[in-house]
Design goal:
The complex is a heterodimer of chains A (282) and B (344). Chain A is built from 12 helices and no strands. Chain A has 282 residues and is mostly helical. The longest helix of chain A has 34 residues. The two termini of chain A are 33 Å apart. Chain B has 344 residues and is mostly helical. Chain B folds into 3 domains: 38 residues; 53 residues; 238 residues, MetI-like (MetI-like fold, Orthogonal Bundle), CATH 1.10.3720. Chain B has 16 helices and 2 strands. A two-stranded antiparallel sheet of chain B has the order 1-2. The longest helix of chain B is centred in the first third of the chain and has 38 residues. The chains are: A mainly alpha (282), B mainly alpha (344). Chains A and B meet through helix 1, helix 2, helix 4, helix 5 and helix 6 of A and helix 1, helix 5, helix 6, helix 7 and helix 8 of B.
């Protein structure tokens, strides 16, 4: 694998003979680790193109694309995808305002309670997902709201809002306050300052946080499965297929996920790399 | 509060406070409290009431028999008594249908031997996943953060992000295919001559908890890499160089310079990995496909959706939460880090 050789050529910390050996061992280790990470994904991808009815790479019955057609006709999965998108949009609408509010309060509030509030607001990230689903289900039962898309959205937003908040806080910590203060001194109303200075400054983060919130919502299983009731999302439908009706259609979904992920991750890393070069050039 | 109002004005500050309070109270604290409350009571069906109702019905039958024998003058009095008893029965039957809510710790203390075994096994395996992930991931995080050139590091990051971002279920599914009866591993063993798939002589990996363990390590290992990487990235290379120039061995450099610097990252990585493994419903559900023993998350799920015993389920869920909270404080003590360092 080329990744490891690149790593080897630049090992500034290790110049001694012992260091060279350590470098070789480290490289071998990296190669093993990346094989470990990717080999299972290759297996899963290949099975999507196998004509055999049960997902397998060992009983090979020839290449086929028929599972892709099968997926396009699978009404339950398509409906699950639509439900996932609905829940994902709902999660964005709930978690972005909550995350923003929490971030504003935590970055500006000087009180000995700030630490406690911070702990409470990030606690959903450290709570097992199934517990968020369960507590949401029990809570809304008192208002006669049964499990479904709405509860799935509320349960997911509980912790996704925390992630959004952390992103906003990181951005706010880099904010130059003098711009806001100058505008206020010149007589602008605080609402105007907020709309014309604070929000534009946060806009890139709002966009990133929305994308990440949406992706986290789509991908979520452990929380959703407890809050979804009789309804289903794409991922809970995939989950139930393992019990009944396992077929290479799931592998096709896997292939689509893999392709989307590779494209998105590559774009993300390239952008970050460009950013780093630009900063290094300064 | 003053700084908030000065920056954003009264109305916006008010809005922020309302939203944050709604989030804290309505989505985090109260739902958890409701879950705890629910775990603390049981519906008690009183056998006393049922017995009393039976006795009263018998009494009515006797009285009706008496009424047939009695003189006409006595009949209204007996019928009065009967209707009085019928009223009492109606009252008791309502009570019988709405069983008493009794506060008790039964939901916690009644955990059966089997469920206790499942619980302990789940926690032990989660701890093992955490330790293994830490040992495997530290060198990787160090190599990407400090050994590789920036270009190579970006490339390696890509290699880490792609499997990390692919859905958890699908990653576990890949391992299902590898460990399946006629899966990749059994086929490979056939080449060596250990198994014989045609004769159905395969090794049933999926029937062992080890299969869940293997898939769990794969599913959550990267949650250990990124936090450690993030802290190691901020470590000045000069510190490593200085330690080496002063004659420190590789082990000593890591033990005295790199690992102390990475402590917050290690703590976060351990907390996330442990929490995800202990509370994972997806991994055991996919790997066992309901054929081999349950994990604790599945036991909780069954309490809610199969036994329809929400109170017991809530108690189990809260038990799991307590274990996770204890683990968080344990990590904070061992690595001497604060809440601020943990979630960043």
């Amino acid at each position: 694998m080329t990744t490891a050789t690149i790593a080897a050529s630049a090992a500034p910390v290790r110049r001694t003979r012992e260091g060279q050996w350590a470098g070789v061992v480290l490289n071998a280790y990296m190669v093993l680790f990346f094989v470990y990470l990717f080999a299972p994904l290759v297996v899963m991808t290949l099975a999507a193109f196998n004509a055999y009815d049960y997902p397998s790479v060992t009983q090979w019955r020839g290449w086929t694309l028929k599972w892709f057609g099968e997926l396009a006709r699978d009404e339950r999965i398509l409906q699950g995808l639509r439900n996932s998108v609905i829940v994902g949009i709902g999660v964005i609408c709930v978690s972005i305002p909550l995350g923003l509010s929490g971030a504003f309060i935590l970055t500006r509030l000087q009180s000995r309670w700030t630490g406690v509030l911070y702990g409470v607001l990030v606690s959903p990230i450290l709570t097992p997902g199934i517990i968020l689903g369960i507590s949401t289900l029990i809570f809304w039962r008192n208002f006669e709201v049964p499990g479904g898309l709405f509860l799935a959205m509320m349960a997911q937003a509980t912790f996704i809002a925390s992630y959004s908040m952390l992103m906003f806080m990181a951005r706010l910590q880099r904010q130059d306050r003098s711009l806001e203060e100058a505008a206020l001194d010149l007589g602008a109303s605080s609402v105007l300052v907020f709309r014309r200075i604070t929000i534009p400054f946060l806009m890139p983060t709002i966009f990133t946080a929305s994308v990440i919130a949406f992706l986290q919502s789509i991908e979520n299983y452990n929380t959703t499965v407890f809050a979804i009731g009789g309804n289903w999302t794409l991922v809970t439908e995939i989950g139930s297929r393992f019990r009944f009706g396992l077929s290479p259609v799931i592998n096709v979904i896997g292939v689509i996920f893999v392709v989307i992920t590779i494209v998105a991750a590559t774009v993300y890393v390239l952008l970050k790399e460009r950013d780093r070069r630009a900063r290094a050039a300064k | 509060m003053g700084a908030l109002i000065r920056s954003y004005g009264r109305s916006l500050t008010g809005l922020f406070i309302v939203l944050t309070v709604a989030w804290v109270i309505g989505m985090i604290v109260i739902p958890q409290l409701f879950m705890v409350e629910r775990s603390l009571w049981v519906r008690q069906e009183s056998t006393q009431i049922s017995l009393e109702i039976d006795r009263l019905y018998n009494e009515i039958s006797t009285l009706q028999f008496d009424a047939q024998q009695a003189a006409d003058a006595d009949k209204p009095a007996i019928e009065n008594t009967i209707s009085g008893i019928e009223d009492r029965i109606a009252e008791l039957e309502v009570q019988e249908k709405a069983p008493q809510k009794v506060y008790t710790l039964d939901n916690y203390t009644r955990m059966s031997g089997l469920h206790l075994k499942i619980f302990v096994r789940t926690i032990v395996y989660a701890a093992l996943v955490t330790v293994l992930a830490l040992v495997v991931c530290y060198p990787i995080a160090f190599a990407v953060a400090k050994v590789a050139t920036p270009q190579a590091a970006a490339f390696l990051m890509l290699g880490l992000i792609i499997p990390y971002a692919i859905n958890e279920l699908l990653r576990v599914y890949a391992w299902l295919m590898i460990l399946d009866y006629q899966g990749v591993l059994n086929t490979a063993l056939q080449w060596v001559g250990v198994t014989n798939l045609a004769a159905q002589q395969w090794i049933p990996f999926l029937e062992s908890p080890a299969a869940v363990f293997v898939a769990m390590v794969y599913a959550y290992i990267l949650f250990m890499v990124f936090p450690i990487y993030n802290t190691l990235e901020t470590l000045d290379r000069n510190q490593l160089e200085a330690a080496r120039d002063l004659g420190a061995s590789t082990w000593r450099i890591h033990w005295r310079v790199a690992i102390p610097h990475a402590k917050p990252g290690i703590a976060v990585g351990c907390i996330m990995t442990f929490m995800l493994s202990a509370g994972s419903y997806s991994v055991p559900q996919i790997m066992t496909r309901g054929t081999s023993g349950d994990w604790f998350s599945q036991t909780i799920y069954r309490q809610f959706f199969e036994s329809n015993n929400w109170n017991q389920g809530a108690a189990y869920a809260f038990t799991l939460l307590i274990v996770c909270i204890v683990f968080i404080f344990l990590m904070m003590t061992i690595f001497r880090v604060g809440v601020r360092d943990i979630a960043r």
